[in-house]
Amino acid sequence: MTPALDLRDGLISGRLEEIGRVLLFASGKGGVGKSTLSASTAYLLSSRGSVGVLDLDLHGPSIPALFGIASCSFRESREGLVPAKVDTVHVMSIDSFVRGRGLPARGVRKAETMKDMMAITNFGPLDTLVVDLPPGTGDEFLTALEMFRGREGIVFVTQPSMLSWNVTKRALGIAVAMKSGIAGVIQNMGRPLRQIERDCSKMGVPVLGSIGYHGSISDRPVSRLRGSAFMRELKNVLEAASLL
Amino acid sequence: MVPKMHEWSLAAGIIQTVEDECRRQSITRVQSLELSVGELAQIEVDTLREALSHLKKGTAMSGSRITIRKERTRMSCRKCMHAWSFMESRKQLSPLQKGGDNAVHYLPSTVNAFITCPSCGSPDFDIVSGFGLSIMSFTADGRKRA
Asked: Of the residues A96, A175, A218, B22, which has the fewest C-beta atoms closer than 10 A?
């Protein structure tokens, strides 16, 4: 028998009412620096307001590592699970639950997990919720578009290569077709590619800027990137796009 | 005794969701509500009932009768097709990880990270029944709404 109503709907709408905006970091391809950019953006934003990060990369969560912790914790309250504050950011990850284990999850179960996480996490009032999505255009991407509809600004991250862009462009095309809120595209880890700017222009999507390759930031938590060239470049991009 | 606060949060979700639906359908009074509690979520039904009874005051559900049905959790292996019950596997949870029970309590869909098929050892299995907490139906203003 199919449930009549989904009790998570009431919880999620209540949570979102307390959140000013939701920045979703998405990409077509993996390995383009999406999680690093989302964690770093959250870190930068937290100097100007209250920020939470929701790590929805169910199969490859890396947000805890980017905040320099083995795994995130939370405490239980009658209003939901309150995520621990790491540095200046409230962090909730799928890894808070599976703690280093792989999560074998198919289709509809992935959507269930994402909705459950958003429903049971009590971030409280936030200026910005940063959501780290897995790469691709499958269940997680589509569920996120639906779950955050009306609140979302999607930041698409691509490497400045046609290999990466040709895949990211597909995800972007889906978001455009679904009339989702798109913040724009960041070219990461190299010199900007003109073709990406041309394609974005045709699609009516802004290119937010580009960030060079910074090999030295690998494996360093975001709190230790303060003052680095990478953080300065990201800050410039976010400020120019009025996201910071 | 560990306080069961997750049930309060879920109860708040039920009240909010039904209230939203009442607003959508211009319903003023809910007469009855039927919930299904899957064994997998390990929800303490008495705490859930207590939370609902407290939180429904002053809402369209205030005079409603709430029925909570427990549903056994059954699993089916995608590799060897073996079918089994959650109770058979529950012993796998505790030794694996401190708090393992809690992870499944909060996020039932993480169960595949903690238990495996008792026949072939595969973690790739389906939950056939008894998944989590669901609002199955409710009656309002004299008729069944869902």
From this structure: A218
Rounded to a whole number of angstroms, the distance from the CA of A57 to the nearest CA of chain B is 14
Predicted ipTM of the assembly? 0.89
DSSP 3-state of B87: helix
Q: How many domains does chain A have?
A: 1
Give CA B54 to chain center in angstroms. Answer: 19
Instruction: State how beta strands A85-86 and A89-93 pair.
Output: antiparallel
**pTM as predicted:** 0.94
Pairing mode, strands B125-129 and B74-77 = antiparallel
**What is the pLDDT, as a whole number, of residue B93?**
72
- CATH number of the domain residue A33 falls in: 3.40.50.300
Q: Determine the distance in angstroms separating the CA of A49 from the nearest CA of chain B, rounded to an integer.
A: 26
A-B CB pairs within 8 A amount to: 116
Q: At residue A186, what are phi and psi to the nearest 5 degrees?
A: -110, 130
- Contact between A58 and A140 under an 8 Å Cβ cutoff? The reply is yes
Give strand pairing partners of A154.
Answer: A24, A182
> Which of A238, B92, A136, A53 has its CA nearest to residue B101?
B92
Q: What is the spatial distance between Cα A169 and Cα A29, in angstroms, rounded to a whole number? A: 10
> Is the CB of B15 less than 8 angstroms away from the CB of A10?
yes
